[in-house]
Design goal:
UDP N-Acetylglucosamine Acyltransferase, domain 1; alpha/beta; nine-stranded parallel β-sheet
């Protein structure tokens, strides 16, 4: 079992400690389930009642909750408790790695790596991974089990690719020829920047002529499809099951909710936030929050509303005529 003293946590991460620095922490947990040797966090005053009832040895709180936290025991006060907790999870994981027996092999014996691929000595390649010809993988990047990286793709430093990720499969390109389809060879690759994390079973297709590009700091959830020639700007985060169609460009510092769809060849500027299940059918040229989905209802009501929507254009034209007096 791993453990850290409160004083060691504050020495590594900062914050204002109130309580015994020698207190031993043996786990991280939510407020409601934390044990007497665990640490948790709360950043929203709405959870003050849960804070009072928590058994956690220490709670990370914002200054506004300092007094409430002190009434129940030790606390660490910081301006951004959620961010502090995120950093604590990384400290905890690093401590676990330091205290557990380590496999010093950076490349699992079952991984298949082409002799013409370039893998940095500090990179880690998991079981059953495939790294094809011409691939370049940067320092401290980790590929979990069963990741496939297609030929000539580039992955930067400090990236994390979870199990089942496929980088550089062919983009969906076919030309119609009568009743048949003829394949368009996908001659580009995929370029992934530094500090990118890609969730399990996400697929990023290679470009048709130019590369598909994922810029520095992008975070992609599980089961996302990124089409060919897409460009995703730095520090953008996209939740699970989203689909980005070919040649779409998403700017920097954007967020895309789960199950959302961005149609092909669209341009989305920086600092755009797209709600879950939204279908983006036109370019977005102004930062802000965008939502577009038909609300859930019982089927009969939904059908009536859908039928009404079909008549809106006709009603609009009739109103325009009435207003103009024609």
């Amino acid at each position: 079992m791993s453990e850290l003293r409160l004083a060691a946590i504050v020495a590594a991460l900062g914050g204002e400690l109130h309580g015994d620095g020698g207190l031993v922490i043996r786990g991280l947990a939510p407020l409601e389930s934390a044990s007497a040797d665990g640490i948790s966090f709360v950043s929203n005053p709405r959870y003050q009642q849960q804070l009072a009832g928590s058994k956690a040895a220490c709670v990370i709180v914002a200054p506004t909750l300092k007094e409430a936290a002190l009434q129940r025991g030790s606390c660490i006060v910081t301006d951004q408790p959620y961010l502090y907790f995120a950093r604590l999870t990384r400290l905890w994981r690093a401590h676990l790695r330091d205290t557990r027996p380590r496999d010093l092999r950076s490349i699992h014996p079952s991984a298949v790596i082409d002799p013409d691929a370039s893998v940095h000595p500090s990179a880690r390649i998991g079981a059953l991974c495939v790294v094809e010809r011409g691939v370049k993988i940067g320092a401290d990047t980790e590929l979990k089990s069963r990741v496939t990286v297609g030929e000539d793709c580039i992955i930067g430093a400090r990236c994390l690719l979870h199990s089942g990720v496929v980088i550089g499969a062919d983009g969906f390109g076919f030309a119609p020829n009568g009743e048949r389809w003829e394949k368009i060879e996908q001659l580009g690759a995929v370029r992934i920047g530094d500090d990118v994390e890609i969730g399990a079973n996400t697929c990023i297709d290679r470009g048709a002529l130019q590369d598909t590009v994922i810029e520095d700091g992008v975070k992609l959830d599980n089961l996302i499809q990124v089409g060919h020639n897409v460009r995703i700007g730095r520090n953008t985060a996209i939740a699970g099951c989203a689909g980005i169609a070919g040649s779409a460009t998403i700017g920097a510092q954007c967020t895309v909710g789960g199950g959302a769809v961005v149609l092909g060849h669209l341009q989305i500027v920086d600092n755009v936030h797209i709600s879950a299940a939204t279908v983006v059918s036109k370019s977005i040229k102004k930062p802000g929050q965008y939502t577009g989905f038909f609300p859930l209802d019982d089927n009969a009501a939904w059908e009536r509303n859908a039928a009404t929507l079909k008549q809106l254009h006709t009603l609009r034209e009739r109103i325009k005529k009435l207003e103009s007096g024609t």
